[in-house]
Every structure is written in C-alpha cells, then in structure tokens.
Amino acid sequence: MTAANAVRSLNRSAYEAIAVDWDNSRGGLTKDEARLFDLALRPVAIHSRVLDLGCGTGRPVADLVIQRKLHLIGVDNSPAMLALARRRLPGCEWVLAPIEEFVLTSEVAAVVVWDSIFHIPREHHAQIFQKVRTWLATGASFLLTVGGTAGGPFTASMHNELFFFDSLPLHRTHADILDAGFKIEASEYLDMPSEHGDRGRVAILARAV
User: Fold this and answer.
1) Among 2, 23, 102, 166, who pairs with 57 as Cys (CB 3.0-4.6 Å)?
2) Are 52 and 72 in contact (CB under 8 A)?
3) Distances in Å between the alpha carbon of 151 and those of 114, 120, 127, 128, 197?
4) Residues near 8 by beta carbon (within 8 Å), at least 6 away in sequence
5) Separation between Cα atoms, residue 43 and residue 46, nearest integer Å
6) Virtual CA dihedral for 158, 166, 36, 195, nearest 10 degrees?
C-alpha cells in the first residue's frame, strides 16, 4: 500500500467509525463562517449546482446550499457518512470518491472544500486546486479551509479515532491557488494557533480568473 493510500484508508476508517457521533456534533456555521459562505454563494443563481468536496454527512454545507435553493453535489470517501447524508437529504447528489480521484465533466457554479483538504497529503493540494479551476467559469467562487501554521503532517484524535492532517505553509497555499488561476478575495483565521498544539484553521475565498 502506498503512503497516500494508507492515509486515505486511515481517515476513511476513522470517519466510518465516528459517522453518527460526528453528525450529531456538527452545528451550524459561526458568524464569520456564515459571512464567507454568503460572499461565496450570493452571486450564484437559484438552482445552480454547487460542488462540496469532502461533504461528510452534509452538515453544515449542504443544509446551507439547499436553503439557498441550489443543487448540491457532495463528494466523500466514507460510505457511512454518505449514507447519513442520503437519508437526511435525498434530493442532493451524493458521490463516493476520494477528492484526489473525483472527476467532473461539466462546470459548477461554485466549489466548497470545507474542513477536508487538510486530511490529504500536501503534495496533492496544488493539483486539486488546478482541477477545481477547470470546473469553474470566470468569476465563480472557490471556498476552502486549510491548516493555519507551517509544520509537517501529523495525526490527532477526534471522537477517539486517529486522523491524518497536513497543510502547506499559508503563503505556499496562497501561491498554489493563484497559480491555479484564481484571485484571493479573503484569507482569515477562523481558529488561531495555540501554544497547546492546535495549528489553527484558515478560510480562503477565491474567485476564478
């Protein structure tokens, strides 16, 4: 098994184990998160398609997309998470696939990668940004979260299961997003790094150019 496949298997098994607990623990968006989602989705016409890579059980992103009368395509690598999403939101399109391997053959109005890309080894991030750009028309929104500090990959526990995490230094992530064909409209900390080991969390809103 390759290193990338081992990481994918670790995270998939962990999310399979915690799917119900994870779904029950997911609340709504914070005020700052909601503001960024509004900026990203406000220009999107009703009934347009929005792609959510790493959708989990659909909370909170799918709920928000549906409230705005948009059509959601949710992609995740955990069958258990998607089963919960399908049961609760059967009108959405749910796809079982790793983010790195997912392929779309037509454009969408916006792409969200919320709290998911940092589960993927950093060497794949630039390629994912480039792939996302091919699915968006000029001016369309790309909203994502990444880790907030430099440092190597690490594992940490959620709901008593071990997960893999990795992010590039923020300036490198910004550069890769720009190189993929976007301009960055906002980049801000949602969770600050702490002396207790929390590496922080940054939201980035970009638009295709």
Assistant:
1) 23
2) yes
3) 20, 14, 20, 20, 11
4) 77, 98
5) 9
6) 70
**Is-contact 136 50, C-beta < 8 A?**
no
Number of domains within the chain: 1
99-148 residue pLDDT tens: 999 999 999 999 999 999 999 999 999 999 999 999 999 999 999 999 97
Dist CA 166 CA 120 (whole Å): 6
Place of tokens 């609760």: 88
Are 26 and 180 in contact, with CB atoms under 8 Å apart? no
DSSP designation for 129: H
**Which residues, other chains included, contact 32 with Cβ-Cβ below 8 Å and sequence gap of 6+?**
188, 190, 203
**For the whole model, what pTM was predicted?**
0.95
Q: Which CATH number belongs to the domain containing residue 197 in this structure?
A: 3.40.50.150
Structure tokens that stand for 191 in this block:
């969770």
Per DSSP, 112 falls in state: E
Instruction: Please list, residue by residue across 27-46, b when 16 or more beta carbons sit within 10 angstroms of its beta carbon and e when fewer do.
Output: eebeeebeebbeebbeebee
Domain containing 79 equals 3-208
